[in-house]
Amino acid sequence: MAKLPASEPRRRKPTPPDGSDSAQRTAGNDRKSGGISMFCIVLPGLIMGCAVALWSSYPSLFTSIQSLNHIQVPLDAPRVMTNGSSFSPEFSKERLWGSYRPQVYFGMRPRLPKSIVTGLMWYPYMPGSQGWRSIRHLAQQDDNLLHYGWLKHDGQAFGSQEVAEEDFTLTTEFVKQAGGEHGGHWSARISAKPRKKVKTSKSKQQKDQIALFFYAFNEGDGEMSPIVEPARTRLGSPKMTEIRGATPELGEFTISLPAAASTGKDHYVSHAPKLEKLHDFVMDKMMRGGRKLDEVTWTDCLMTLFATEGSITECIGKLFPPKPNVIIQQAMFDLPFQADITFKSHSDRNGAPPAGSDLTKALKAHHKAFNTRFEKTFDLAAKKYSAAEINFARAALSNMLGGMGYFYGASSVTSSDLSTPVEYMTRPLFTAVPSRSFFPRGFLWDEGFHQLLISRWDPLIAKESIGHWFDLINQDGWIPREQILGPEALSRVPAEFVVQHNENANPPTFFLSIQSLLRNDQVDKEFLQHLYPRLSKWFEWFNVTQAGPVPLSYRWRGRNATTDMELNPKTLTSGLDDFPRSSHPTEDERHVDLRCWMALAAGIMANISTVIGEPSEAYQKLHVDLSANDMLNKLHWCEKHRSYCDYGKHVSQTKLIWQRETLPDSGKQRSNRTPRVVRKMVRKVTGAPKNKFVPVFGYVNLFPLILEILEPSSPQLGVILDRLNNTKLLWTSFGLRSVARNDSFYLADNTEHDKPYWRGAIWININYLCVRSLHHYGQMKGPHQRKARALYRLLRKNLISNIFKQYQQTGFIWEQYDDLTGQGKGTRPFTGWSALVVLLMSELY
Question: Which domain holds residue 100?
């Protein structure tokens, strides 16, 4: 296997030349130098003695320092996303600005660590009501919108989104115009119209006004200020028409605000400590009864001072606030309305962002261009799909592209040698997200699936995302599996999921993305050369840290072997969370899915090595060894259960039971008080666990099929295909369920609070891989070709028809689908890997 070049040796400090002043000491200085010499002899001994004492008393301190260095040090190799390459930021100015804030309903930001961020808030307004309590800003499931999402988005210069409230539909659109040195201009149009009234008793309560808030927030250096027109009448009020400013990264700019007539308009200039708290900041203002944010009185100061959490510092901060960093415009609009916002970069003197009728023309042109490009890419009209189905597919792709986000910060990481988490390296990340409402952050194994679709639309976006991810790798070859970068992303994550452990992996799905780029001639040699040192180090990390107990076997790390609270200890690192593995985790486990991932990865590493002229023999040999069906059968095929299985210490007779527990006396209880008794669920095991094949049938057992490891003539392939088309096992009219219906783990809770996740529900990413593999084996001559071809057609049809049906009924694409009813479940909208339905429709594998 190719070795990376050794790092440059540390240079020595230059030695003073002979004849220097130090060589011309007088005799009077000899005693002093002798004293210094003696001190130099004694001092190292003292230091060594202290070090030995520390080592004997606190050995973990030295281990932690060593681990700290390993976990935080970036890989000593050129970064992929650096200036000077055709896919680097300096060549991507046309993508500097974008809707890169998936965690909010609408917002524009540049791909810069600290700069100007814009966003939108709104609420339905009725005089005398408190509609502001339901202010919309952060994309959240609890808002219970009828539907929302991008209907069209090209990933670069245009997007059109629809948000359906109960009484009206809000549309957000944007277009970009490249030019100048700072990414050019952009225009956004916010419009709304009433929904058709339904003949109900509530029809008279139809809301006919919207309170709209547009804001600009400055995360970094520079400044911005409002341009305000004075009141035109004695009873009128001044109106903000523009925001002007300048930052080191963006130069000078002007944001022009809505000129459409409104029933009321106001603006606020203030200092908000944190972008992630801006929603609360505005809510606090609304609760105070509508007073301007920059009008602070001594009464406010005293209220702060005497509040429980108040302080003199906060009081002074209210009266003498820091430099303003947020400007908010509030406007009341009658329905229907249309409001245009433009951002003009002063470095582009050859044009201006369109507004009004010019923006209408530009939007129409972009809509038409998107439709033409979409059909040319996916060919759905030619495949006789209906207009509704094509619109559905456009929305699925557009939500994937509209869910691309730019994040900047450092992960919180730890290792077995650290007592407390530490900050990982600070980096930017340009990535798609699984769900804007629930998972607005980067996930390692999700992103490999995301780029399968994105690369078909725009290979350059795929390469940029892959490059950003691999620039996160450390010197050991590890990439944290969840990327929670920056305070805004962190604010949406439960505390228990924040810290990443450096022993934990995630499926290396980026090899799927790279495989797709290679197959479709969408990747250039220059990109692969930049990526190769990092990709090979990542592969090496998997091959070493996830190695199994016997040669050519692999084991996911990160399972809890001591818990008695789980029916089956989870394997979060596999991506399949609660899919049943061996009941008692040990180092003797062998995981069949990870072995198949490594077989796929080794083959792709061999291909890349050949393309860029690196040695490929070691990768090729490992790929051949891991793909050999006879060794795969020896390690994982169970004839008794007629499937490929995990191997480990297992007992099938487990269940969760309620158990009473008396809490220990804290010493503060009165003698006449009854000790507190609580109930909790614990696992009860019947029988003695022993090493054997784990008798579960589900997604994990299909990996030799879905990653195309099996030979077309394999008898095991025929057995799997027979079992696949069995309604008592995985087959349903809506797709393949994750665990067989006749299995004891089917729909079983894993703890008192953990409902089944990968234990029966239908997941689109694994179904996509299964359809893809059936298409592959349906093209390969052999005894199972006809059966594979028939299953391919039926499974593909079932998946497409159900996902489309649920979208029509609910307005959303879902995280998973019920195996008995086909109904959407889990998070919505989930236009991460569930959007792979577009590739199923177009038959692009």
Answer: 95-196+206-274+324-377
